[in-house]
Write a structure and sequence with these properties.
mainly alpha, 13 helices
Length: about 300
């Protein structure tokens, strides 16, 4: 392994660790705020971090509103809306489900859906190794999602449906972004997504007449979580792409569930079940097999 590859893996690992712990901060913040307050302050802070990224990190002080505005195409708006809805559903699942690490692992169904939709809509190739990866990922996710077989209503753990729907919307957004990748700017996309979510929660706060009076501790948790999700994850994930292939970055970030389980054990005192650990590892193995084949 070259020094360049090691650097890329370190950047991707930091992105995965930051994303995993942003889930923990979101779960901790729900002890002090409701979902509407969470969304308003989380995405308000996230929007600010996005603009800091565009101004300072991404553009090195040479950010142009006019140039970025030209990049806001119909395709970018479509992807941004899909990702915004998916993000809202994902955090709602974290609110409902006990362990955010499990939510993260169930989200590994996303790369599987991307492969399937890529075959259907983009006429991409499909082979035996990918099929094995899909089966493993589905098996691991099923082990994490199933609650019991007593009744149909209790088949899946509460909140699982929101993770599935979020993964479905994320995968559709990924397919559109892949097809229109030459016209979609990732930095602008992230900022537009954050703004859409912020405006949506501003509207909800007004309609629901929600108080925005929150504690200092809640504000700190929300700010740190948004910082990890929006700023650290984006910056280090993009940095990793400068040193290693995209499929390797994707594999490393798919391990975020492991970090989330560990952090949930440390900060939330939630001991992971053996089934959760096994199911999570199997789902990651499936993502690895799917992603490696996508290298070609």
């Amino acid at each position: 392994m070259t020094k360049k590859e090691i650097t890329g893996y370190i950047y991707a690992g930091i992105a995965s660790l930051a994303l995993a712990n942003s889930f923990i901060f979101s779960k901790l913040s729900f002890e002090y705020v409701n979902f509407y307050q969470f969304g308003f302050f989380w995405f308000l802070t996230g929007t600010l971090w996005n603009f800091i990224y565009l101004f300072v990190i991404r553009s090195r002080g040479k950010f142009s509103f006019r140039q970025s505005a030209k990049g806001i195409t119909k395709n970018l708006m479509l992807v941004a809306v899909l990702e915004a809805v998916a993000t809202g559903l994902f955090y709602y699942a974290i609110l409902i489900m006990e362990n955010p690490g499990v939510v993260s692992f169930i989200g590994n169904i996303g790369p599987v859906l991307v492969v399937i939709f890529g075959v259907i809509f983009l006429k991409e190739s499909f082979n035996g190794i990918q099929f094995i990866g899909i089966v493993l990922a589905l098996g691991g996710v099923s082990a994490l999602s199933i609650n019991g077989f007593n009744t149909v209503d209790d088949l899946f753990k509460p909140g699982t449906q929101y993770v599935f729907l979020a993964a479905f919307l994320f995968s559709i957004a990924t397919i559109v972004a892949r097809k229109k990748r030459k016209t979609i700017d990732a930095g602008v996309l992230s900022a537009v997504r954050a703004i859409i979510l912020l405006l949506a929660f501003v509207l909800l706060v007004i309609v629901k007449n929600i108080s925005l009076d929150i504690s200092v501790k809640a504000w700190i948790l929300l700010s740190l979580g948004a910082f990890l999700e929006v700023f650290i994850t984006i910056v280090f994930a993009y940095k990793s792409l400068q040193y290693i292939e995209a499929f390797k970055t994707s594999i490393i970030i798919s391990t975020k569930g492991i970090f989330a389980l560990i952090s949930a054990w440390i900060f939330l005192h939630l001991t992971p079940l053996h089934l959760e650990i096994i199911g999570g590892i199997i789902s990651i193995l499936g993502v690895v097999l799917v992603s490696i084949q996508k290298k070609k």
